[in-house]
Amino acid sequence: MPINQRKAGVILSYLSMSLNILIGFLYLPILLRYLGKAEYGLYQLMGSVIAYLAVMDFGLSSTITRYYSRYLALNDHKRQSNVLAVSSIIYSLISVILVILGSIIYLNLDKVFSNSLSIYELIKAKQIFIIMLINVAITIPSHIFTAIINSHERFIFLRVLSIIQTVMQPILILFIMRYRADAVSLVVVQSVLNIITIVLKAYYSFCQIGVQIKLYFYDKIFIREILVFSFFIFMNTIIDQIYWKTGHIILGIISGTSVVAIYSIAIQLVMYYINFSANINSVFLPRISAITARTEDMTEINQIFNKVGRIQFTIMSLILTGFVLYGREFMGIWIGKDFVNAYYMSLVIMIPLTIPLIQNMGIIILQAKNKHAFRSKIYFIIAIINIVISIPLAKLYGGLGPALGTAMGLFIGNIVVINIYYHRVIGINIIAFTKEIYSMSIPAFISLAIGTIIKWYLEVKTLEVLALNIIVYTFIFMSFMWLLGFNDYEKGLLKNGCLRIKKRMGKLIGLTD
User: Fold this and answer.
1) Percent of the chain with pLDDT over 70
2) What is the structure's pLDDT at 283?
């Protein structure tokens, strides 16, 4: 029986994501023990600088996949080869520009970080930067192979390769750290593994799929189309970069590497929080698109928006309230008391971030209605404002400053402005949605209050006590949600989920057929 590449790809994607989170939790404390706060902060600082050059991919990988897949479906071999050839030329030009820009930044690292880094740290920063620059210059053109493999729907190869890299990277890094524990060794191992991965993708594309890259003609229309199509993808990438990486650079200039290390841990926790948000939105795009093509009436779309939002609120509010209760103790047990301030930094961001996470269905609705350009423009403006306000805040409050700047940006752009746009222009009934979420927030706050009382009597000092508290709190939270928050549909989902688990466990131990 042939393997279903799509289903296997989805399963392996979730496995890869889960492994990333699990390995991150296990690997990070050990890495910090080897490197120390300052060295880890230096690594994160240079990574944030180089990440601004990495965005020069311009989202072309997704664009190439779109156009190459079109000619693949039409069985037009000539245009397939031509698309890849034109894309290769564009990527080569990007790499040349990237190296030039990177060289300019390299020559000015002393001036930018002279007030916050020591001479020894500046020497290491330059070594790390040049290795990362070479890595990115090689990686960007290799995105063409990812596009080829995706277009041919060979998802299993890509996901398995990603999983192997996820597992092997920390193992090799920790092995090297035993002999040379510094950030330079860390980036060397990462770069070597990355190059091996690129070679394997290239081999698979040429030898297994059998693609040809040949220039038949300069397709000016194609070039213009991919540049236009990539523009808003590029804008979204820049916005993400400003939100999640600029704080590192601001703190690196103002406060030094130790503060950068703490802030980077906070941002990593925020990324985990985002990953935990239920990724169920994309499957609704065809349905939302069909509804918008059939009618302008928003009744059915609003029902879907509310339904998905309520499910996502259940997941995110459980994690958020649990983190409010036990996050500080978790940080102390996980990576030590020196990094406890990361709890406050991440919490400041996670609270306003919860609203856009439970409203992710709005992005799908904007895409279906072809209205996503406004969102990109507004978020870009807010992201720039975020930089402006984060600089003075960083001077006043250290690592907490950029976190506050990001939180303000999220509140203004992702909550206030976008919800006004959703309600007045798109027709999403935000008032009705707010009432739905308010009704569910009551049992969440009750659970938080009870959890606070329990924590007062059951002090968390060990991992075992922390785990017990989390299990008890999850039971309390879900009980109050069942009694006061869930509607019949949500209760049905939970019942069916429990029945499936029970049935599978029964099969596993041989109690049922």
Assistant:
1) 91
2) 53
